[in-house]
Amino acid sequence: MTPHPPKVLAGILNTESERAWEDTKDRTDLILTQRFPKKTYLDAPNVVVALKHFDLGMGGKAIGVKAATDCIERDHFNTRLSVWGDGAMSSSGCAWMAYQATDKRFRSGTVRTSRRSKMPSEFPIEFETPFEGDPTVLVWISGFQMGLGDTWEMKAHAIKSEKTGFTLVVEKGIQTNLHQGLFSWLAFMPGEGVAGGSVEDIKIGDGEGTVAADGSYVWTDPKEISFGKTLNGVTKDNVMVGISAIKFERAAMRLCYKHVEINDDMNGMKLTSGTWWGSVVRSATMSWVAVV
Questions:
Q1: H-type lectin domain: which residues (predicted)?
Q2: Each residue's pLDDT tens digit, 134-157
Q3: Is residue 4 pLDDT above 50, yes or no?
């Protein structure tokens, strides 16, 4: 008997796999479609998206990128990847996770900040249905628009996680001019075939990491991540990894990661982060969730 497709799926959507600055105008606003295996969902699922990579340049007074779901149906969804502001985008990509709306293991949503938002900003979130205990909450950056400044620095995370809700916190650097921000969050109870966490203080470039043979990329050493349990049957199609914090000096904003490698014993994975030539990542945080 053929096993039924998993009800929780994850993956990535990219505008470009290779950098190409000679023609960026056609990549300023793209709609990418992700189709689900046949009969995976009886109804439209909930979909969470987060930035997974970007290669951005200053094109005026602002720099930014945004990933947002455009249409969600039971057999597919669309994601709009676009420049947010008047900057230039060579490539960008998002990570996504889809789950049945009836799956009580998860709650999710989005928060948006504006120029009027004080920093740090705190957003109390109340779950429509409480958990039985205090959940794990992950927060990702789905989009940002920043102005001129000496640094580009921002962070999104959760505090005061309780069974009824949590507080989403957005912080920025003192010398960072954050015009707008878009953030996604996912809450779940540890256990029940779910694991999640964050890899913090990732540094790349300026002597940190290994330069690729062709000089185009700089990669960190693979980071070993423990699930804290064995997730039998987990594959890269059940893992979502997105960006939660960034810090760049003003030059170019370039951050990416390779496909995760699931350990043979299925109790963890390896994550390799990177950047392209000419960019230095002073600090970054990647948050992840794995589900079976």
A1: 35-99, 124-188
A2: 999 999 999 999 987 778 999 999
A3: no
CB 216 within 8 A of CB 276: yes
> How many whole angstroms separate alpha carbon 92 and alpha carbon 16?
7
CA 99 to each of CA 43, 103, 134, 244, 260: distance values in angstroms, whole numbers, following the listed order: 10, 7, 20, 21, 20
Are the C-beta atoms of 5 and 90 separated by less than 8 Å?
A: no
% of the chain surpassing 90 pLDDT: 60
- Locate 87 and state its tokens: 């900057």
Chain centroid offset of residue 276 CA: 18
pTM: 0.91
Q: Which of 175, 171, 115 is nearest to 285 (CA)?
A: 171
Percent of the chain with pLDDT over 70: 91
